[in-house]
Amino acid sequence: MAVITRSATVETGTHQMSGALRPIAVDVALPLLAYYTAHSVLGLSLVDSLVLGSVVPAVRAGHQLLRERSLNGLATLMLVVNLLGIGLSLVAGDPRLMIAKDGAVSSVIGLAMIGSVFAGRPMMTAGMRPFVVKRDAGRDAAWDRLAATSVTFRRLERSFTLVWGSALVAECAAKVVGAYTLPLDTMVWLGTVFLVGAIVLAIAVGNFFAGRMAELVIEESKSV
Question: How crowded is residue 35: how many other Cβ atoms within 10 Å of its Cβ?
């Protein structure tokens, strides 16, 4: 019976974790992939690509602002980064500088994530929590108890955000190095590979931390 209960908890936790990753895919991965696909694969200009990459975060931020009178942190950050990128693209003339500048889109997001961890407010938590608690009062209360009393839970929170932030910063570093050491023709497609690889790595590693957090919340909610 204990084995069955544990298996059910893990399965439920895995399901919740998959839901927890959904806002990350929408707010971070999708806009970045849209931008890099438009620019590196379809050959659109930097400005046009940044505009396309801004559509999803603009809609997400606007929808939450109208519905909840609050801002979606990740979506708003993506929108601001893309708007800054549009401005920077107007003054960048060196092709290698323009390729290196592409990495700034993900590095700013990554650095913001890492900074939020050291500030004690892991950025990914806000997006993950609703998909873990599922508007369940018991799980919501369990999350608060764990956040207040569990060192393990808080470490998992920080680790999940750090994984994503570190992956995006590493992608930027790889793109900057590649921009000044590899042929431009190579970097046109390799830059997209760097991005996809960073996102896949972040999902694979973050999968562990998000799943464990979901399991702890479920177990805590059942213990009361």
Answer: 28
The alpha carbon of residue 102 and the mean position of all alpha carbons in its chain are separated, in whole angstroms, by 17
Written as one string, the DSSP assignment of 155-173 is HHHHHHHHHHHHHHHHHHH
E runs forming strands in the chain = none
Distant-in-sequence, close-in-space partners of 213: CB < 8 Å, separation ≥ 6? 17, 20, 128, 132, 153, 156, 157, 160
pLDDT in tens, 81-124: 656 666 666 665 566 776 677 677 678 888 989 999 999 889 88
| pLDDT of the residue at 125 | 84
pTM of the model: 0.66
**Highest mean pLDDT (candidates 52-56, 204-208, 217-221):** 217-221
| Region of residue 43 (phi > 0: left; psi between -120 and 50: alpha; otherwise: beta) | left
Task: Determine the Cα–Cα distance for residues 79 and 62; give it in Å rounded to an integer.
Answer: 11
Map tokens 């609050």 to a residue: 70
DSSP secondary structure, 171-212, as one string: HHHHHHHHHHHS-HHHHHHHHHHHHHHHHHHHHHHHHHHHHH
What is the DSSP code (8-state) at residue 72?
Answer: -
> How many other CB atoms are there within 10 angstroms of residue 78's CB atom?
28
